[in-house]
Design a protein that fits this description.
It contains 8 helices and 8 strands, in the order E-H-E-H-E-H-E-H-E-H-E-E-H-E-H-H. By secondary structure, the chain is an alpha/beta fold. The protein has one domain (3-259): TIM Barrel (Alpha-Beta Barrel). Strands 1-2-3-4-5-6-7-8 form an 8-stranded parallel beta sheet. The protein is globular, with a radius of gyration of 17 Å. The two termini are 19 Å apart.
């Protein structure tokens, strides 16, 4: 089974997307033998109030809950987020929350973010943090949004040991405490592989050695990106098929059971 933890539906303010509806995304998944995907609204990234985008996502995936696993985008710096979190979890059955601290102008260490992380954790929801949305070199001239720093994430991981973080669209972990062995961090975070290298520096292999194969999960970034590069990274990875299967789906499936 292939379970993609890094997928999206909706419209992005600065770029036309294809395969961004439930039906078209499912067709793309079928073409690449991806059985299930964790999805959030890409529209919510640039909405001042993300909740209408969450509502659209909840309605859009309702007929496809066997394959599309919805995540809420919640902005803790926006009024009413507590009610939004409750609605997304209790009414829409959303499994986790995606956080965009740099797009929504807060830090993970801010009081509002800590309150959201704690509230989501108490509900058994995962915390998915995209370190970036798109390549910084291709950003619109209207925005200048940096990546979420590794150090900021490490501090949140340490401050919330009961939370479960899924770090997506990231790279360079092996050069930070997040990717080092014996880093004195709780093992409460998982790293998605779409931007990691399987050759040359082989960051995927380094993370397998440093953190263990159970801490890596598969993601593609579709439809912002096509799944082929991420799948090829697993294909060429110098690891056993058992390890590859864990990354492709088993690890994420276990995470979802914990968060249910």
């Amino acid at each position: 089974m292939i379970l993609d933890v890094n997928a999206y539906l909706g419209h992005f303010a600065f770029r036309h997307l294809r395969q961004n509806t439930p039906d078209s995304l499912l067709r793309l998944m079928d073409e690449h033998n991806i059985e299930r995907a964790m999805v959030s609204s890409i529209s919510a990234v640039t909405y001042r109030n993300p909740q209408p985008a969450n509502e659209a996502l909840g309605a859009g995936v309702q007929a496809h809950r066997d394959r599309l696993i919805p995540l809420a985008v919640v902005n803790p710096a926006y009024a009413g987020w507590r009610d939004d979190l409750k609605t997304c979890h209790e009414q829409f059955g959303m499994t986790g929350v995606r956080l965009y601290p740099k797009w929504h102008h807060y830090d993970l260490g801010d009081a509002c973010a800590s309150e959201l992380i704690q509230a989501a954790t108490e509900r058994g929801m995962l915390l998915s943090i995209p370190l970036r949305v798109e390549d910084y070199r291709q950003r619109s001239w209207l925005v200048d949004v940096p990546d979420v720093p590794h150090g900021e994430i490490a501090a949140a991981v340490r401050a919330h040991p009961q939370a479960r973080f899924v770090l997506v669209n990231g790279a360079g972990f092996s050069r930070s405490p997040l990717g080092r062995a014996d880093n004195d961090l709780p093992p409460n975070y998982w790293i998605e592989i779409s931007r990691l290298r399987a050759l040359i520096t082989n960051e995927i292999g380094q993370l397998i050695r440093n953190l263990g194969p159970e801490r890596l999960v598969f993601g593609s970034g579709m439809p912002l990106k096509y799944p082929d590069p991420a799948l090829l990274k697993i294909e060429v990875l110098d690891a056993s098929q058992e390890v590859k299967n864990r990354i492709l789906g088993s690890n994420a499936a276990s995470l979802l059971e914990l968060a249910s």
